[in-house]
């Protein structure tokens, strides 16, 4: 029997601890009870646009019955069996092969996880493993970037470059180093021409490797387009230069494609935009369109060979109960089949351009510092002064107030600081895409009074 909304809120406050939690921000939670396509419905019957596709993951939209049926059928057939070495199952095998066929040409094999953090943790450990097998056991350090988000585990948190995730959980794990990202809007070098800016910020990696000693650095991890940090799109020179530096110093390049993987930027994998191939790809989220928890790493031929050809004493002792979960993998296969059948990667590119064009109209409002995006991920960064890039006083919580108003007008989205983030489902209808920028226009104008 359905429980009334006020009772649900009471029980929630009494018994549920949420991600990023403080009860002061949770007195009037939206309790979602239903989703259809790009729309969510709360317990009070209100309809909102799911402006972030859940948490960047629900690419196919809500209520997809094909996915529901595949999950039910796989549960009836085989809900779980161990995928530890010596056993396997058809969905895991078929999904791994499918993912490799869609990934960068140098990719060869998949290890499955259940979330993005676990994928990044697996990437770090696999990088260390690779260097140990290759007789360089001191290559253990991981370099990452400020403003990045890589997940909640101790290693992934230590690579994460958003300090609020560290404050109450420090100290960070040793051997994690962070450099500045190519974030033009808030950078003292933001006036440089874009290509030069890309090279200059990529060179921070070379400086860090030399400072640490190349013989100690295992890997560099980067989101091709930073998501949670505020949809930071790199200049086109950035990743080609990063690849050069990684090659020069024998440092593995890990692409954290937990958000960008499987079509979000308008390509199957985002480094394709710049003709770059990583050594390891972390993925999660979109592989099942968020319907079930599944993630993993895709590894290059060279790394897969290191694992396959290692002597028995150097076995890849990396394990999790739910690696290769048959139900999650069956839903993954169906998700990718639908993305292909409906040309949704191409649609994400087209809808992304439409969204960005709509958002550019927000430049009529002086409180809009920058609008940026790639494919179907975009951000509106609010600022007190666009020319000098002076930000609003964080105490004013401008974006938070804008989003509260947007929510009342029918758009649900998130912000980090004053960076409002948008990533609707790939199937979002054109008129809903247009409505997103209309609602934001109205909300920003109303809240900032200009
Ligand atoms: C780029 C990136 N990496 C890793 C993660 C962590 O994924 P999860 O929350 O599934 O552990 C996220 C989560 O949003 C992410 O955006």
Task: For the largest sheet, list the strands in their spatial order.
Answer: 4-10-9-8-7-5-6
What's the CATH topology label of the largest domain? Aspartate Aminotransferase, domain 2
Looking at this structure, what is the CATH superfamily of the largest domain?
Type I PLP-dependent aspartate aminotransferase-like (Major domain)
Secondary-structure content class: alpha/beta
Rg (CA only): 22 Å
CATH architecture call of the largest domain: 3-Layer(aba) Sandwich
Helix-strand pattern, N to C? HEEEHHHEHEHEHEHEEEHHHEEHEEEH
How many domains? The number is 2
Beta-strand level of the residues, as a percent range?
15-25%
Summed over residues and divided by their number, the pLDDT gives a mean of 97
- Counting H and I runs of at least 4 residues, what is the number of helices? 13
Describe what this molecule looks like in 3D.
This protein has 450 residues and is an alpha/beta fold. The protein has two domains: 139 residues, Aspartate Aminotransferase, domain 1 (Alpha-Beta Complex), CATH 3.90.1150.10; 275 residues, 3-Layer(aba) Sandwich (Aspartate Aminotransferase, domain 2). Helices cover 37% and strands 16% of the residues. The strands form three sheets. The protein has a seven-stranded mixed beta sheet, sandwiched between helices. Strands 1-2-3-13 form a four-stranded mixed beta sheet. α4 packs parallel to α10, α11 runs parallel beside α13 and α12 packs across α13. The chain is globular. The model has no long low-confidence stretch (mean pLDDT 97). It binds pyridoxal-5'-phosphate. The site of pyridoxal-5'-phosphate (PLP) has 15 residues, from α5. Pyridoxal-5'-phosphate (PLP) binds next to α5.
